[in-house]
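We examine the record.
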Amino acid sequence: MIASDLPGAELIDRGLRDLALGCETEESLLVSLAAVPLRALGFAVISPLADAELRLYRRLAAVHGDAAHGRYNGLVRRVVSFQRAGMRQLADKARIEAFLEALAQETKTETDVFVVGGTSAVLAGWRDTTIDLNLVMRPESDAMLRAIPLLKERLHLNVELASPDQFIPVPAGWERRSPVISRVGRVTFRHYDFCAQALAKIERGHARDLADVHAMLARGLTSEADVRAMFARMEPEMYRFPALDPASFRRAVEAALLPPAA
């Protein structure tokens, strides 16, 4: 088994085992699709399946219907994150804070930077490390955007400009609902609205994402009532996101808000 706590590790582990057994599964097709980069990272990808991309999409469509496209993209993102883990170092709290402080030095204008996902998890204290440092800024600072590639290389971090509103219809006002972490120079660092983060993680639906949702609820960073209320506000706008299936998303919300199994 792959000894890794990184996003996607469970998919790669299952896929490699299924391929070795000659089984066609979502995971073995996904590993087949990523065979070349995985081999470059030292993994023995045995007899990858032909036409993996098409076969994986057909399998997902048979199970998930109209939601297959979103499911496919989510799986691919997980594998990409895993691949990057082989080239980048994990980011702990100290390294994240060093990056954010250096980034703040690059602008002389008032800017809010919202951290997301694993970055929030590390800074809020329920994870020790993350592979991706995800953030979004408002307003966008050209100077800070130009600095990110250089800081990534200098600090050996993987930095992504990503936020929940790229994947789900986050209600207006999320900036005001985003709690402040710190202020450095003219930059205010915030956690992206935790309720929106929880719903984005529920929609993606991976085990690590659902564990993050339970951690947010346990720490009082959001509440079941707030998650349900925001989902109700989002539902009429889901037509703007063709990859979303509202009925499946609703079921996932209800399932995620059940107490985790002991």
Summary: Residues 90-262 form one domain. Residues 130 and 166 are 20 Å apart (CA to CA).
